[in-house]
Each structure stands twice: as structure tokens, then as C-alpha cells.
Amino acid sequence: MASPLSLNDAQRAAVNHPAGPVLVLAGAGSGKTRVLTQRIARLLGEGTRPEAVLAFTFTNRAAREMRERIERTVGDAAARLWMGTFHGTGLRILRREVRNLGPATRHPDFVIYDREDQEKVLDEVLKRLAIPAEGARGPILSRISDAKNALVTTEEMANAAIAPFERRAAEAYRVYQETLRDRGAFDFDDLIAEVVWLFRRRPEIAEAYARRFEQVLVDEYQDTNHAQFRLVEALGRGYGNVFVVGDDDQMVFSWRGADLRNVLDFESAFPGAALIRLEQNYRSTGNILAAANAVIANNRDRKGKTLWSEREEGALLRFVLARDENDEARRIAAFIQGRARRDGGRLADCAVLYRTHAQSRAIETELRHRGMAYELVGGVSFYQRREVKDLLAYLRLAINPADATAFWRVLNTPRRGLGDALKARIEARLVAGAPHPLAALGQVLSAREITRGAEAAASFVGLIDELAARAAEPPAGLLATVVERIGYLTWLEGQEGSDERRANVEELMAAAAEFAAVNADAGLASYLSEAALLTDADRIEEGADRVLLLTAHNAKGLEFPAVIVAGLEEGLFPHAQSQQSPAELEEERRLFYVAVTRAQDEVLLSAAAFRHRYTAGSGFTAAGGQVSRFVDEIPGHLLERDQPVRARPSEEYGSDRDSADEHGADRGRNGGGMPVAWIPQRRSRAVGREVYHEEFGRGVVVAVEGSGGEARYTVRFGTRIKKILGRFLSEGSHVD
DNA sequence: TTGACGTATCTTTTT
DNA sequence: GATACGTCAA
To answer: Which whole number is the average pLDDT over A176-196?
Structure first.
């Protein structure tokens, strides 16, 4: 960050504030990381023991960076700080207190379940409860997550549930939680909620921690949820030195339970709290800042502050309207390339920010086409890749045989001829009282209940036993054993994308070796925990010269000389899902504010007049739309619009009126936003024609792929969209 | 028991 | 468009 050589008055006040609760309202680029690190360094310099300092960061990367900076001032003592994410710190406490967890888990070496594991558990739960899973899985899972973030227990939820959905969700929550406990697993939300619940059950434990931490600091405070707030409160209670830094204008995680009341009510929650505002921005040019300020000023629900900068006005922000997502990708790539050539800049100076992961595809294709290096952050994270999770599941099972989710995952992966017949035997044993499927399998084998896959099953059990016996060894060697014994690489050969998968397996082993080098005496359990809590954003490599591609959410806390914000269309950014309520719309605006304020010198905004995208309910359609209102909220004199595109005469559209209104889901629904041209590409003459299908009846052709007898038609029948081979269609009525 | 094939569902954002 | 899942035939 372009920081001042010395602190400004407000920063100094924050760094040196003597004691008691402090709320620092820190605008984007106002040097809050600097304040946090200098404050911690000061505390340590004045004699505070590092193990008495607890700091919460939003990402592991932020924790690492902050620790490194502090290390430069105070040296090795930095290693003893308690510094990490809420989840990492919660985990650390749970591991220390594992003997006191009581009803929370049944296994000392508990594992962490990620989203995929949670879904598998919930599927089993719903099946057991005879709740139809279709469409209910997602909502119930997020309802459970909401409950935990709000510290609502299963009993409390059941008691309060009235509506049918709520009752079903409460029932699912109860059984889900029992299942996790039986399997010795915690999900992400448990890592925080279970700590608070432990503190409530055992006040003396809470008190011990409150006495331990003389200083509690929180970064990105605006994104804390209720459970996190309670955790901070409990840990900071001893000394009352709770120092939180946040920006209400950058709260973008309300869907994860983030609650702005934590900021707005801080002063009443912590009586006598000092309030310090950091309003000088050291990052962005005057124009970028003015644009960001103008946009965020449209939000009503904010504490209000005005960022200012001593930096030069700088270049105007630029806006390009592309024809479609491919054209948009070309413009973005050209911008980055041009910038790199013109200024001798690096690709790494540029980041492309978007609302949804799906948008990365077109940009990736274009960058690859031009031979430009890029790094994609997010999407399917490394530790969630199938091959990675397969291998880790073996290790999970080795340290925690109760991890039934891992068991079922690997029982027949790779294929070893163990199928439904064996599964039925195992389940019968479970019903008869076997503690977990691995034990049940052992019983099935000793009772010689199966003959067909007996040998394979025995060698599977043998492998797990061996791994369990060697659990104290470094993980890399154990992974190598697994890979070799199950012939994983050979199995991958025949699979789709085997090269990439093999590379991932190799990277996994390399990362495991690295882990062992850094954490010499750490066991398998902590290796697996770390793997579960690492995110893609934590793996961003410093120093590589490549364009970064990431969601606006993932860009939080980062900065770049040039930022491209892509896909600025109504319905995408702001997202259609968020246009129902003013509160959600304001969150989208904050997200846009976060995106723009990542930029130091240059901002390129882009939109596509026409975009292929998935819209719920109407299938995969071609949506035309309007430019995002956020672009229009930027004062005209700050924005340079590239080649305004006007709507072409209607004959360009083909023979009918079937234009944006027919295809586009979100056109014109919500005022604001400049209408844009809708210029379809490569439209077949068949598009717009009325056709007839035996089963679905009358429909309209939306798109065509291929030609002749093999042509596949995308046809809209009323509200549903189907892809159908041409020979199953007959001509309805002629339009041309 | 496996693999081919068709269909439903997904995508808003993440620890 | 991709993936996961169910159904069907071999």
C-alpha cells in the first residue's frame, strides 16, 4: 500500500490509544492494516506478552501478512501471537479443549466438514426423515448455517418453528447435528458457535481465556456475525481491550450472517468505547475516490464518512460496452495488454473483478488465446477438487474411523468392485449396533458375509489400519502410500482431464511436504484441519507476473494499480437475486464500492450488451439487459465512455420482434440504468421461428447449434427451455 | 456391476 | 455448459 512515511494524526491516535474498547472506522485504503500491525508492535514493544494478544483477520493470507510485518519490528515473538481467522482461532480453542467438549463431538481427532461433506450428510438426513430433497437441500443448509451464526441451538429452533419449512429445517438441523457428532465432525459454522456454547456451558473455561487475552483485535469487523461478536465479547471481557477496525461501507457478507449492528451498536455493547475515523485514503487517485464516494453516497444505511486523498486526480475511469461476453473479454485483454506495453507495466498490476465465478470463463479463454498469464482465484478451490478430497478422505478415515462421510466416499474409489451388495451388509451391521461403517465392514469380513469383493475389501481395511498405525508420520509419506497402494494415478489415466488431476495430486503431495517442513511436530489432524480451512485466496502467489481473476468478494483487502470491473449489467451486478429489497441492493452497491476502491491508478468498467447466462426458471438463455445503475451513479465528468453503441435498426434482429424482451429476463424491470443495444451474434435464420413438438407443443426457437439434420435447437415452450434435435421438430407457422 | 445415456439442477457471493 | 444422479442395457 502507498502508505505515508509516518502516521497521520488519526492513525497515530489509533495506534497509541492506551486501553479500553476502540472502534476504528477505517475507509478503504486508509491504512488500517498499518494501524493494526503498528498497534500490535507497540504493545509488544511495551512489554505485552505475544501469547496474550489475540487478533482476528478475515483471511489466512491477511493473518500471514500481518504476522510477517510485525515480525520485522519485533522479531520471533510474532510467532507466538494468536493471530488468524475466526474459524482458525475457533478450531485452535476447540482442539485445546477437546476433552471438555462434552456433547459437541464424540471424537478427539475431530475433522472439519466442508460444504460438499455437509451436503452429503444433509442428503442422508433428509432421506432418513423422508423429507423430499429436491430444492430443499440448499435452503435447509443455509437455514442451519443461519441458526449457528445466530447461536440458535437445535432445541431453540425446534421450539420456535411454526411454518412448515421451518419445522422441517429444525428437524433436519437436529438430526444433522447428531450425525456430525457421531462422525466426529464439525462444519465451518461449528468452529465458532461451539466455542461460544462451550463457554456458556463452562464459564470457568471462558474465564480462563478472558484472563489470558489482554488484547483482542479484530480486522474487517463490519463482516462479523452474531456468533463472532459473542466470541469477541467473551474473549475481550477480561481486560476490556477490544480494538476493532471496520468500514460499514464495505460490509458485503450479510448473507453469511454479517450484522452491521455489531458496528453500529459497538459503543453501547462496550461502554466507554472510543471512536476513531480514518478518512484519508492513500491508495487511489482523486478521480477514482470521487467516483467511489459518489456511488456509495446513494446508500442510506451507513454511518457516513467522506474519504479524501492528497493524490493527484489521475486518469478518468473508463467504461466500455461490449457486444457480448466474448467481446468484453477481448476488450479487457486488450486493455491489459495495451497498458503493459505502453507503460512497461506488469500483468500483475491488473486484476479483473466480477460478480460471479461463471464470468471468468470467457475472460480465461481470451487470455489463454493471447498467451497472457493469469491466475484464477476461487471457483472450485484446490482442496475441494475431487482427486484431492479422495486422497484426503483416506487420511481422514485413518485418524477418525467414525468419519462415515469419508468412508462412503472412498470405499469404492477407485473402483474395486465394492457395490450395493456390500453396502447393504454394512448398513445392516450399523443398524445392529456397529459404531461406524469401518467397524461394520470389519464385522462383515470376519463373518465372511461376502465372497465377491472380500479380498478387495480386506485390503482396503488393511490400508486404513496401516495409515492409522502410522498417523504420527509426516502426511506427505502417508499420501504417497495411499496413492501407490490404491493405484490412484493409474486409475486417473482413463478419466476426463487426467493430466490436470495428476498434476493436482502431485501438487497436493508437494504442499503436504511443505506443511511438514513448516510445522515439524504437527500431526495428521492439524494437517487435515489446515487443508480444510485454506482457501484459494490464501494461495495467491506473490511475485508472479500474471493477471488476477477473482470475484469482488475475494478481492477484499487487496489492491492493484489497475482494476477492471466486468459484467456491469443490471441483473448481474447488481445481481438479480439482490434486487428484491433495498437492503440487498445496498449490499451490492457496497460490493461495487469495494471493487472500485481496490484500484490505485486506473479503473476500467465493462458491460456486455448481450450475455449468455443461466437464469433460474428459464434455463440457459441469452439475456440482454441494461448497463448497471452503478455506472450511471458515477458523475459524468469522471467517466470516459468508449464508443457509445446505439441500437441498430430492427431488421438486424431478424424477421420478427423477438428481441431482448423475449430473451432477456431482466430488461426494464427496475428503472435506472441506460438502455443498451442488443446485438445478437451469429443468429441463425431459424431463430424466432415457431415450431411444434409432439410432447411439448408449440414453441419458439431461441438458438441453433450445428446444421443440417444434426442441428440442435434450443426452443422455448412457454416458460421452459429445451434443447431438441431438429428432426423432432416440425415447422409451426412461418414468420418470414 | 459397470458404463452409456438422458435428465434435472445448478450459480451469487465464502470460511 | 457441466455435473451429478437415475435408468437402462450389456
So the answer is: 94
A4-51, pLDDT tens digit by residue? 458 999 999 999 999 999 999 999 999 999 999 999 999 999 999 999
CB A149 within 8 A of CB A74: no
* Length A693 CA → B4 C1' (Å): 26
* C1' of B15 to CA of A465 (Å): 32
Cα three-residue angle A18-A20-A25, rounded to 5 degrees: 90
Per-residue pLDDT tens for A262-274? Answer: 998 899 999 999 9
Integer Cα distance of A308 and A289 in angstroms: 7
Q: Which of the four pLDDT bands, split at 50, 70 and 90, describes residue A690?
A: low
The least confident of A214-223, A275-284, A515-524 is A515-524
The predicted pLDDT at position A173 comes to: 93
Q: Assess contact for A554 and A377: CB atoms under 8 A.
A: yes
Q: Which three cell numbers stand for residue A34?
A: 498499518
- pLDDT tens-place string over residues A433-442: 999 999 999 9
Distance CA A428, CA A441 (A): 10
**3-state SS class at A627:** strand
Per the structure, the residue whose CA is closest to nucleotide B8 at C1' is A134
pTM for the predicted model, two decimal places = 0.84
Is the shortest CB-to-strand distance from A386 to strand C under 7 Å? yes
Dihedral sign, Cα of residue A604, residue A609, residue A613, residue A616: positive
Q: Distance, angstroms, CA A417 to C1' C9?
A: 19
Residue in the block written with cell 480451512: A533
- Nucleotide in closest CA–C1' contact with A386: C3
A32 is catalytic: yes
pLDDT greater than 70 at residue A396:
yes
Chain B bases closer than 7 angstroms to a protein Cβ: 1-3, 8-15
Q: Which of residues 466-485 of A touch strand C (CB under 7 A)?
A: none
- Taking residue A709's Cβ as centre, other Cβ atoms within 10 Å add up to 8
A614 touches strand B (CB under 7 A): yes
Q: How far is the CA of A519 from the C1' of B12 (A)?
A: 36
**Residue bearing the bigger pLDDT, A334 or A344:** A334
Which bin fits A343, alpha (ψ -120 to 50), beta or left (φ > 0)? alpha
The set of residues, in sequence order, having a beta carbon less than 8 Å from that of A611 and lying 6+ positions away, is A324, A325, A567, A569, A572, A622, A623, A624, A625
Please check whether residue A321 is in contact with residue A331, taking contact to mean a CB–CB distance below 8 angstroms.
no
Which three three-digit cell numbers place residue A63? 493473518
User: A321: closest CA among A311, A307, A331, A312?
Assistant: A331
Q: Which amino acid is at A551?
A: T
A533 touches strand B (CB under 7 A): yes
Proximity of residue A705 CB to strand C below 7 A: yes
pLDDT band at A702 (very low <50, low <70, confident <90, very high): low
**Closest nucleotide to A703, Cα to C1':** C1
Q: Is the CB of A106 under 7 A from strand C?
A: no
pLDDT, average across residues A122-132: 81
Distance A534 CA to C7 C1' (A): 39
For A411 and C9, how far is CA from C1' in angstroms?
26
What Å distances lie between residue A587 and A296, A594, A634, A664, CA to CA? 10, 10, 17, 24
Annotated catalytic residue A228: no
Q: Is A33 a catalytic residue?
A: yes
